[in-house]
Amino acid sequence: MTDPYKVLGVSPSASDDEIKKAYRELAKKYHPDNYVNNPLADLAGEKMKEINEAYDQITAERQRGGTRSGGSSSSSSSSTSFSRVRALIASGDYTNAEALLDSSSNRGAEWHYLKGCIYQVRGYYSQARAYLERACAMDPSNAEYRAAYNNLTSSQAQYGGFNTQRTSGDCDACELCSALVCADCMCECCGGDIIRCC
Amino acid sequence: MFGYVKPDRDELLVKDYNLYKAVYCGLCREIKSNVSFFLSFGLSYDFVFLAIARDMLNRNGASVEKGRCPYNPLKKRAFVKSEGIVYASRVALILVEKSLEDKRRDKDVGLLSPFLAIAEAYLKRRLKKITRNEPYLTLEMKIEEGLKEFSRLESERSDVDTLAVAFGRVLADAVATGLEGDGERIARSLGTALGSWLYLADAVDDFEKDYKKGHFNPLLEQYGTPDEIRSHLRDIDVSFGAWARDAHLALSLVDRCDYTRLADNILALGLGREAYRIMKGDKND
After folding, report:
1. Closest to B258 measured CA to CA, from B89, B90, B80, B87
2. Could you tell me if A129 lies within 8 Å of chain B, comparing CB atoms?
3. DSSP-assigned letter for residue A140
4. Does B244 contact A155 at a Cβ distance shorter than 8 Å?
5. How far is the alpha carbon of A97 from chain B, nearest alpha carbon, in Å?
6. B156: CB partners within 8 A, 6+ apart
7. How many CB atoms within 10 Å of residue B152?
8. How many CB pairs under 8 A join A and B?
9. Does the beta-carbon distance from A160 to B275 stay under 8 Å?
10. A1-26 tens-digit pLDDT
C-alpha cells in the first residue's frame, strides 16, 4: 500500500489534529453525496476507501482509537407507479427510461422529477433544473424531489458566478458589528446610546 | 480559443502563480519552436489549463527550467517542459485551425477574409506535419467528426443543453485522446463538463452581439430578447455551477501532485469568477 501520509497529503510529523482535519476535508470532497448522478461515482468510492484505509492505518500506528465518520449514501425510493423507470435509471439505461417515461400520459410531479434526473445525468442542466423545479412546485412536500433540486442548485453556491461569498458579501457578521459600533458612537455624540456596555 | 479557463489570481499562493506562469511560458515556447510562430500570439489560457490537466492525468511532475524568453530576451524566465505541454500545443493547432475554417465558412469576416485564408492555409500545412504521428491523427479525425455533428445540431437550432454537451464531447476528445482506463474516463468527464461550460460562457458573452447582428444564439432562441436573458441569469448560473462542479469533481479523482492546488483554484474559483464577469457583461481583465 502507498504511504498513508501521502494519501492524506500531510507530513509524517503532522499532529493528530492536522491529520484529522486533512482526513475530514478529503472525506468531504469524495463523499458519495457529491457524486450522486455522476458517472465517476465508482472512482470516488475507491478514493474514499483509500483515504479511510490511510486514516485507519495512521491512527492505528499512533495507537489511538480513532473515530471516523464513514460515507453513507442515503437513497430511498418509495414504491410508485414509475418503479420500472426507476429501475432502468438505476441500471444506467437512460435511453429506455426516457422512452418509457415519454410514453406515459400520467405527467405528475414524479414524472417531472424522473425526467429531471435523466437530464441531470446527461449534463443537460438547464432542462434538469426546469423539470426538477416543476416537480417541487407540483408536490412541495416531497423530500426526494426537494433534495434532488437542492443537489443541483447547491453547486451554484460554490461554483456558480453568483457565488454568495463573492458577490453579496457586503454584509457579513464583522461588518454588522462595526456598523453597530459606528451607530453607537454617533448616538453617543448626540447624547443617546444603543449599546449600553460600550 | 476563448480564454475563459484561468485561475482566480487573488486567491492563488505566489508559488502557484509562478508555476502557472511557468506553464504558460513553457507552452508559448513549445508552440513557437515546434508548432507555429504565428500560433504563439494566439495562445489562450484554456490551453494552459489543458496542459496542466494532461500532466495531472499522466502523473507527470512539473520540471521547471530557466531560459530567456524569445519576446523579452533581457529577462530569464522559468518555464515548464512536459508531455502535457507538447500535447496541448498540438491540440491548440488543431482547434485553432478548425475554428478558422469555421469562421471563414460563416462568411462573417468581411475585409479580414483574405488574411484568414492565408493564415488557414499556413496552419493547414503545419497541421499536416503534426498529424503524421499518433495520437494526433486520431485526434484530428475525432475533432473534425465532433465539430461536424455540432454544426449539424446548430443548424437544426437545438436547445442550449444539447449544443453545450455536443461541444463538450468535442473537448472530451481533445482532453482524453491517447489516455487509457480510469484516466481516460476522468479526462472524458472533465472535458465534457468543461466544454459544456465553455459553450454556455460563449453564448452568454455573445448574446448581445448576436441579437444585433441577427445571428443564431441558443439563449436568444430560448428566451427571446437580451432583456429576457438578463432576467434569467440566475437560472443560467445553475448550469454554470453544475458543469464547473462536474469538472472539479472529475479532476479531484486524480492523485495529488504539484498542480493540485492550482487546478483546484482554476476549477473551483476561477470558473465562477469568470462566469460572473461574463454575466455582468464586464470587459476582459
Report:
1. B80
2. yes
3. T
4. yes
5. 18
6. none
7. 11
8. 119
9. yes
10. 578 888 888 888 888 888 888 898 88
Can you give chain B as a three-state secondary structure string?
CCCCCCCCHHHCCHHHHHHHHHHHHHHHHHHHHHHCCHHHHHCCHHHHHHHHHHHHHCCCCCEEEEEEECCEEEEEEEEEECHHHHHHHHHHHHHHHHHHHHHHHHCCCHHHHHHHHHHHHHHHHHHHHHCCCCCHHHHHHHHHHHHHHHHHHHHCCCCHHHHHHHHHHHHHHHHHCCCCHHHHHHHHHHHHHHHHHHHHHHHHHHHHHHHHHCCCCHHHHHHCCHHHHHHCHHHHHHHHHHHHHHHHHHHHCCCCCCCHHHHHHHHHHHHHHHHHHHHHCCCCC
Interface test with A, best of B159, B161, B171 (most A CBs within 10 A): B161
Query: Residue B116, CB half-sphere, CA atoms under 13 Å: how many?
Result: 18
Nearest by CB: B193 against A6, A123, A124: A123
What's the confidence (pLDDT) of residue B44? 86
Q: How far is B113 from chain A (nearest CA, A)?
A: 36
Three-state secondary structure readout of A27-56: HHHCCHHHHCCCCCHHHHHHHHHHHHHHHH
pLDDT tens digits, residue range A143-161?
Answer: 889 988 988 888 888 888 8
Smallest CA–CA distance, residue A115 to chain B, in Å, is 14
Residue A79 identity (one-letter amino acid): S
Sequence spans of domains, chain B: 9-280
Q: Is it the case that residue A77 has pLDDT exceeding 60? A: no
How far apart CA B57 and CA B26 sit, in angstroms, is 18
Return the residue of B nearest to A37 by Cα.
Answer: B246
Q: CA–CA separation, A52 vs A79, rounded Å?
A: 34
Count of C-beta atoms within a 10 Å radius of residue A113 = 23
Helices A16-29, A41-61: axis angle to 10 degrees equals 170
Residue ranges of A 18-77 with Cβ closer than 8 A to chain B: 29-30, 34-35, 38-40, 43-44, 47
Higher-scoring residue by pLDDT: B153, A176: B153
Pick among A34, A40, A115 to test the B interface (most B CBs inside 10 A): A40
Q: With a cut of 0.85, is the ipTM above it?
A: no
Inspect the interface and report whether the beta carbons of B249 and A38 lie closer than 8 Å: yes
Superfamily of domain B9-280: Farnesyl Diphosphate Synthase (1.10.600.10)
User: Which one-letter amino acid corresponds to residue A72?
Assistant: S
Nearest Cβ partner for B253 among A43, A156, A158? A43
For the stretch B215-260, pLDDT in tens is 889 999 899 889 999 999 999 999 999 999 999 999 999 988 889 9
